[in-house]
Amino acid sequence: MAYDAGTNWAGNLAYGASMVHEPTSVDEVRRIVAAAGSIRALGSRHSFNAIADGTDELLSTAALTGPVRINRETSTVTAGAGIRYGELATELDRAGFALANLASLPHISVGGAVATGTHGSGNRNRSLAAAVVGLELVTADGDLVKYDAGDPDFAGIVINLGSLGVVTSIELEIEPAFEVQQTVFERLPLEALLGNFDGVTGAAYSVSVFTTWRDADVIDSVWVKHRPDRDDPLAETLFGAVRAEDERHPLPGIPPVGCTPQLGVPGPWYNRLPHFQLDFTPSNGVELQSEYLVPRRHAVDSIRTLRGLSAEIAPLLQVNEIRTVAADDLWLSSSYGTDAVGLHFTWVQDQPAVEALLPKIEAALRPFQARPHWGKLFTAGAHDLDRLYPKLEDFRLLTKRLDPDGVFANPFSTEVAGS
To answer: Which residues form the FAD-binding PCMH-type domain (predicted)?
Structure first.
């Protein structure tokens, strides 16, 4: 089946492809790709830039969701790349298993999140892509190729930006299911965060810090996701922040409809690690997103830098989320070779104003080796990214080897990644 391309999740980008294919089988994917001169995979459309645009055709992975196969001996699960994390998580939990980490939204597809290096939060939690131990990829000539952890170039294939082919299935590490208690602390003094950054982010299994920068000296809230089986009990206060008396939304003043349960009530991992529930589409109206990840050693200086820009950031900002990510060895990971801190911005949907501000933020963060999230808005080009990603040239060579005729190439891959 093929249909008009439409827009991305936020509506800020209209895809230029003449059609979108929606195959229901791997064999159909192979036939479509083999016949295409210019095509690219499309996941759950949650990218805010043109990473999945600029080709004659698009191939949606939305119908490539199963089957979900759990291997208890190897503690892995294999599923179609189009399955959403929330859907995979409920199946895993029913079988007594869990993923170690989830992003703030359970609505995103596994394949798309992995391909763009999306991550969750936690001092010891790696990016979502770091859980991948195998995948199947349809290459430009329609061949189906299986890659496993330990294979040559595997670390370059996992986060692939859609430039290597169409991923049809992914194998992930899993672990026994666990419970999480979510507690929100409010009004953390900024200096308390900066003076106790390790203590705040290490207060529990997963921690997210939210601020609007409207009061530049106070952090609005800290969302603490506590694993009773691993973490020490929480204190009544968190470095001066106090527990919220009612459930909260990450954006101050917004009703918490659709947010995952809080107030320290224990619940399953998949309904606490994300900020939002799967059956609710979270958006404060329309929005744009950017994110920059800095090595953890630069966390405090980077946050101080944002505080210095707060007067310019706040008028365009819905909320700034600060999260930690553990290091991995994936070539295009924003936490490649270093523990990282994500500085995530949810903007109002004024794209010209946001894009005018981003170069100033990027210039201010440049001394801290800030790597942009591949699926969000940024202005850095290949020249800047070469400095930030030591394996980027290796990725370009890998792309030329797997896709010599540029079937999966688009303006994003050539202008941004240089591949």
So the answer is: 13-177
